Request: fold
Amino acid sequence: MYWADRVAKEIIDSGKFKPYWVDDMFTPSGFAHIGSLRGPLVHDLIYKALKHAGVEATFSFVINDFDPIDGLPEDLQKDFSKYLGFPLRQAPSPKEGFESFAAYFADDFKNVLASLGVKPVFYSSYDMYHEGKFDVAVRIALDDADKIQDIYQKVSGSKKKEAGWLPLQVICENCGKLGTTRVHNWDGKTVAYTCEINMVKWAQGCGHSGRISPFGGNGKLPWKVDWPAHWMVLGITIEGAGKDHASAGGSMDIARQLVKEVFHIDQPYNFPYEHFLIGGKKMSSSKGLGFKARDAQALLPVEVARFLFTRTDYRQALEFDPMGTMAIPDLFDEYDRCYESWIEGSNEDFARVFEMSLIGDPPPKEKTLLPRFRDVVNYIQMPNIDILKKYAEINGKELTKTETDIINERVKYARIWLEKYAPDEFKLQISETLPEKAKDLTEEQKEFLVKAVNLIEQNDDPEKLQLALYNLTKELKADAKKSFSALYIALIGKEFGPKAAWFLLQYPKEKVINRLKEAAK
Ligand SMILES: [Zn+2]
Reply:
């Protein structure tokens, strides 16, 4: 059974977690890296599997825009340092046209999600706090501060905080920062606070002290308490977390203990999902490793990008390393295998993976030519080939609209792959310098190259040049295959290549001629 269907079945069979409400979240403090798409996709797939199983379900996404800014993307460090400590929603947008710092990054992330077919209902944490929806949770947390501290200690082994600690931060009325305030003395109506100069390393408080109501958006619960408070306030019954939050004693464990002992609601269904790895490393935006989520569309067609996530069970690490590897062509091959299974009804699991990867309407369920990505890569590098004609020929009949669209889309992504990601051996393009292999050319091959130079100088028509080159091999009583190989070795370091004359004539003649002469020395 497909993994998301298995999870949905487990949820339904348990008789618990009703009404089904799947939730995930995002903190808009920078552009998300591609690995952070795993959470939204896993949640989306479980939500869709629940719907597919015929039950009612809701899917929401909380934008954590009330969190303080506690770090900045490199390019914003100069101009935005003064906003460190402010709620994400209360700092200005780095670019015009967005309401706030949070909106700028949240909008981008929402667009990426929509492009991948992930369309939850979005909730703003900032708005919910300001509308008073978290007031109940804030009151419970303040009343039960000691119990919360005990749970922190028991679950994560953290050391006891100072006496009078309260699980809340308020926005300083003097400087507007949230991340720098320490709250104490809850009297049932107001809390006292100090905006501390040196409490955190990343922001400086102003030293102001005061008393304020903790409600209506004046204050925010710390993340470990805020998370389970979401579950209570919205009624969330299904939410997983990446392995880093889900580790023993981590924030998920604390949150689950808090719902049980403090908020007194049922624990949501949990599924700790594995990381997204690139070259065996966890992707992290702070270390600058890996791609941004918004680049996914530049890398792969949206359905194939979605497929990358749908095919892998959440319990397995997702490895993807497109740089200089066959990861992208291999991914297309797997996608095609699932596409074919879906058409033919040959493998239920593969068919289901394909179905779950669809974003728009499904394609016609009929025999469809799926050009292998690596073949497309080769064809587009052969200047004498019209790829649509070529595939019509291979197909033995006219291409359907779906087939034509698929080919055109693959041509687009094959070009991107060649330019940015392909290993060198896939590039049928004249190399920068004389390939090593040219050292092994025989005297006979060198003679052919010297004479071929004259023919290239004289001919601009590929048909004629091709014939002339062929006749030259006869004239020299040379082996035709070895002679043509010499051309490819000199230009691209390979024994074979696209049809010679067309290939040679696509470059400036001088460049080709100089190279052949160099190889023939
Ligand atoms: Zn202050």
Observations:
- The two ends are 64 Å apart (CA to CA).
